[in-house]
Design goal:
Two copies of one chain form a homodimer. Chain A is an alpha/beta fold. Chain A has 13 helices and twelve strands. Chain A binds a DNA duplex (16 and 16 nucleotides) through helix 2 and helix 4.
DNA sequence: CTGTTAGCGCCTTCAG
DNA sequence: CTGAAGGCGCTAACAG
């Protein structure tokens, strides 16, 4: 009832406990458990220590170790909206899988695109001795790297630094290569002079307003690659249909317009999957069968691409692999400064066929 | 060239630095900065300390504080596949938003449903002095709470404990209420005796095999609620169409079957959005217009529900709010043990109309 | 080969 | 009202 020694909440076993049990000094235990070879320890004590540690179920207190060594075995994924958006969270998985192999834990943090929040969060992370930071964006774009992060191992994920001087490695999808591949896919199917791009913005408009005015890089790169791919074969784009946003409704509208023109295109390259879904719908409403009467190619490889009818030929953002590489880089001892471009695999590939 | 004092990498400013600058003792600084009132400090020293701290840009080292106090200002979100699946990541956002208000950082961790991995990760988290754990599941189900977690503030998110004895609070969507609401929506539109449920599994089958054999709770609860809602109005379900998975193709198949029957249903209640999308497609192929000739209700409120034609009347999983509540509970001092059921709002609501 | 010792930066009891 | 001192658990010099 009135026990003077209240049920001690199972105090964690410490190095000293192990040392006591093994009958050696704390440092000896530390040496053994950290597998250091610079100080030789007798076989016998080593075994005693191991036995004692196992028996007691010893786990080192990482907080104490961090305080001592300055390294925490911890990194942070600082993103604008990544865990929110579902667009990009395979990146998180890739990072986690790689980090697990390196015994590193990850703080997840979202800045909501707000500088003050970002600043606060970064300070909080630094105060916790994170060993590195992956600075990530929901969609590929140029970012201003917060100055506080200089000096810390830093990798940009799905974004590139505004000032290229900043010698920071970045991991991005290889959009241009995907654009070229899109050209190749259509050329090989027999398309050539009636390939239309769908999803450019009208002059002066860089993107939808709710994107904080951030400029997505995907459009320019995909289009560049596509054009280059066509040019390499002596072909060129029949034209571009502009939109004011990248949603399904915009795709319907734009595709209806494009497909109603005389000399209707035989293939549409859509800037993303949502536009492509709209295009499929427009085609159906116009009585066009995909891919028999019209081929459609798009980008993102989102879940959407799998549930359309037919499934889209879409170049997928290699998010998991990007996340993996970012984690790998942030833990790498040798610093690199390259931009790592990760290939975008073609998924589905059932919405392309030879032109009628 | 041969500078004996190599450019010191901007050593972090410490309590002692502030004390020195302010000309007071470390403890005085600690008192002021932690706003303790039990020891009175003169107005003047307080100001001097504040000034010195501000000027030096002092930030407490949280690792040291953790070692001292045992509390880290850190929790962990331990999930099976949450950040991977995109099904559920609004939960992460909700949690992060709430945690930010409490100056707490979050470790994100995925167990991939593998016990050994889970065990390893949990040990690693405990070794880092996390103040609490949110144990989350990708889809609502019963979980076995790992014993290591007892003693730590713990909240189940989107799951409930296998042994109800375990006095652990849980946050789940209120599926039964959503089921009842689905009944109400249809009854109010004028449907009554020809309401069909779509998405039960054949006897002996609890779920798709790739779900680790985990039993989802959604089906039973949604169906129960629906039945109860109908019964309360003196109506009842016309029947259930079974499927072997919850994908689009299954929806097409099942809906085609259901809609081809004599005495075709006037309304379909689909177990989730993907099935509903399939149902929409089947209806279209059969020449039925939604919602004029057929009403469709579903559950999940996934992004899918917004891009169908028409957008689905879908009861949305309140993921963000669930995440918020879980974070709130894990930081709460007063322990609760209730199951918190969060309402599922009806979204879209354009696929229901009066029967023909 | 092993043990002693001095911190890492902070909080907090206890003297002054 | 303020300062000195101990210790959280661990690592790594440095003696023995």
């Amino acid at each position: 009832m009135d026990d003077s020694t209240p049920a001690e909440p199972t105090r964690r076993v410490t190095l000293a406990d192990v040392a006591a049990k093994a009958g050696v000094s704390v440092s000896a235990v530390s040496f053994v458990l950290n597998g250091r070879t610079d100080q030789r320890i007798s076989e016998r004590t080593e075994q005693r220590v191991q036995a004692a540690a196992d028996e007691l179920g010893y786990r080192p207190n990482l907080t104490a170790r961090t305080l001592r060594t300055g390294r925490s075995g911890t990194i942070a994924l600082v993103s604008d909206f990544i865990s929110t958006t579902s667009v990009a969270n395979a990146m998180v998985r890739g990072a986690l899988l790689e980090l697990d192999r390196r015994d590193t834990m990850m703080f997840a943090v979202e800045t909501q695109g707000e500088p003050e929040l970002e600043n606060r969060l970064l300070h909080s992370l630094l105060a916790r001795d994170v060993d590195g930071v992956i600075y990530a964006a929901m969609f590929t774009r140029v970012v201003e790297v917060p100055p506080i992060l200089t000096g810390l191992p830093l990798v940009l994920l799905n974004c590139v630094p505004a000032t290229p001087i900043t010698a920071v490695p970045a991991v991005v999808p290889d959009e241009q290569a995907a654009g070229r591949a899109a050209a190749r896919v259509l050329l090989e199917a027999g398309h050539r002079d009636r390939i239309q791009f769908l999803g450019t913005f009208p002059p002066g408009m860089v993107g939808a307003p709710r994107w904080h005015g951030w400029q997505p890089m995907a459009l320019a790169d995909r289009l560049d690659g596509l054009r280059e791919g066509l040019r390499a074969a002596g072909a060129s784009l029949a034209g571009c249909t502009t939109v004011t946003d990248w949603e399904v409704a915009d795709g319907v509208r734009a595709a209806t317009e494009a497909l109603s023109a005389t000399d209707r295109p035989t293939a549409l390259v859509c800037a993303n999957d949502r536009l492509a879904l709209g295009a499929l719908r427009a085609a159906r409403d116009l009585g066009l069968r995909v891919p028999v009467d019209l081929s459609v190619v798009s980008f993102d490889g989102s879940p959407l691409a799998e549930i359309t009818e037919p499934p889209l030929s879409s170049f997928a953002l290699p998010q998991e692999e990007m996340g993996r590489q970012a984690a790998d880089l942030v833990l790498a001892t040798r610093r690199t400064r390259r931009v790592h471009r990760v290939p975008m695999p073609l998924t589905g590939h059932t919405s392309v066929a030879a032109p009628a």
